[in-house]
Amino acid sequence: MGGWWVVKCPKCNSEDTKVIDKRATEEAEANRRRRECLSCGARFTTYERIETNLKVVKKDGHRVDFDENKIRRGIENSAGKRFTEEKTDALVDEVTEEIQKEHPSGEVSSSEIGEKVLAKLKDADEIAYLRFAAFHKGLENAEELQREARALRTPQGGRAECGISVIRKRDGRTAAFDRERIAKAIFAAAQAVGGKDRMQSEDLTDKVILYLNAHYSDRRPPGVEDIQDAVEKTLIENGHALTAKAYILYRQQRSKERERKELFMDINGVMDGYLQQTDWRTKENSNCDYSFSGLMLHTAGSVIANYVLNELYPAEIG
Known about the structure:
This protein is mainly α. It folds into four domains: about 1-50, no CATH class; about 50-135, no CATH class; about 160-255; about 265-310, no CATH class. It is about 55% helix and about 10% strand. The chain is built from twelve helices and eight strands.
């Protein structure tokens, strides 16, 4: 299994053996392998099981023991007769070995395992990939499958093709989807923590687009916040924690800037409220003369009051 141990022939003690048959036991606790010694020709059976403390965190939060046979069954159900047994074994071994190396004695989410299987199937067979994606991503209709299939095909340059043409802005309007804005934002966050690899930013942008293709469409376009959440998720899941932190801080800064713009309110509205005496502060404040100086005092007081409420008081107040 991926070079984790050496199997020796019980007759001649040679390490030069090959697997000629493999299947899981009925209890699915071990793999039964029929082997042939290439030195003396003897055949023998081994029962192999990975000893691991690795736990799989399911979507509902409960934990189960890691079981490579579940990966095998998922691949077999998706590939059908398209894969030989040897090819399936190789894919299972690759996924299992990656998980073992990345999570030697900890926990791994079931969604991460599914993403690793998808990545292997994407390179191995398009039909198997789409079948597995239909289950793993919960694709429910032909349109979603077609969108996933489009995402598999890349344009010239090798970049992921986005199946979404529009996004939903914060004010409810729609705007054209712009892949370059995502790539620039990721690269800017990477640069903030010392990163210099623009191509890696493009690769991460591909992953963001694949995620968006799987979860949104032009009939249900993503919002700006949805896209930003997808970027954060992609950065974190691909091991770029520092870049993710820089990106999160950037989001917070932009949010603060928007709040400050709203803080210094519509001056026309403030002035109209004074001149028409519809603002409660004009009616209640006996010190506020109905004059040019009163207008200045009223406008300044409105801005300062909103600044204090939004910036100086803690969020818990009110």
